[in-house]
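User: Before I run my own analysis I want an independent prediction to cross-check against. Here's the chain; please return only the structure tokens and, at the end, one sentence I can use as a sanity check.
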Amino acid sequence: MGNQEIIELSEQYLMPTYARFPVALVRGQGMRVWDADGRQYLDFLAGIAVCSLGHCHPRVTEAIRTQAETLLHVSNLYHIEPQARLARLLVEHTFADRAFFCNSGAEANEGAIKLARKYQKDRGERQRTEIVSATMSFHGRTLATLTATGQDKVKLGFDPLPTGFSYVPYDDVDALTEAVGEKTAAVLLEPLQGEGGIRVPSPGYLRQVRELCDARGALLIFDEVQTGVGRTGTFLACEQEDVAPDICSLAKGLGGGVAIGAILARETVAESFGPGTHATTFGGNPLAAAASLATVRTVLGEAILPHCRRMGEYLLEKLRSLAAENRAVVEVRGRGLLVGVELAEGYLAGPLVRELMDRGFLVGSAGERVLRLAPPLIVEREEIDALLAALEEVLGAL
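Assistant: Structure tokens:
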């Protein structure tokens, strides 16, 4: 089938929840993907920060093949070997003592909210039910996680929403200090805001949040769904501020392209998820766990993280040089290989995304005026240079 046939099939039978581009991608290898008509693209979005090792990485592909020939699914009523190995690997390389596996970032954040409230109840702090998050945040599309999200546009039409959520400006310690009190169960923050425009906090902000939570008896939850598994140059983004949360959510890059999410937590917090308190049918199934195990081992063991830092520094440097010569760009910001290019008033990211796609480059947006780049962590300078040349042409035309 060609692009048009697939597009017509999608438009006839799928719910119209996505404003899709008129392209059907059918094959991928490394940094490259191909559409149904055979056109090649360099993928600087990686399935929205999912395909951390690129498309069809040999280690991940082999792990999936081997596991598919061995055991696809058993329920969590039984012990699952690759799940147990994955939990140990994540615990050994993060702040956490325990892991719970689910299927997505929204599910991981939903579980993190439940865990925070259950922990406070178990301590006798029954009044601590409220979750404080940040404006311009994004935490998912379930009823609880879209309520936790600090963007009104995702909430339209879904009233009534759950109660017990409030919001403060991101990177504003004074506002957070005012908001966190004796009813606060947890503060939920992204160490670097993704969907809100690739916003990097001021140095010391996360440390101050940690100290505030400790002083006020609130838990600290870091949503690392987009920033985790090496995306910013360290396995968790919070490592760069030397700050550890009580609970952390992971997904996106965790499975190398296979759907899996995780909740990581300290022992004293994880104890509140006893038998019967939380569950999932597919979470941590043998196939997803095997793919994730291969992905995490590769990210941690093959110099992927230092390569990500080098390529991220190179990308930021080149983009900032480009921005200095073009009035359409207000700011370039990011860490590692999660980068945002903010455009000036009057310019929109959408047309740039489309123009770059027409030139053979897949990028995304994070808000109306921010171009989002989140390439696979294996991207090389030559591929970055090719994108920059195309972006310079597009910006020049503006």
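Sanity check: The chain has two domains: 59-301, 303-397.
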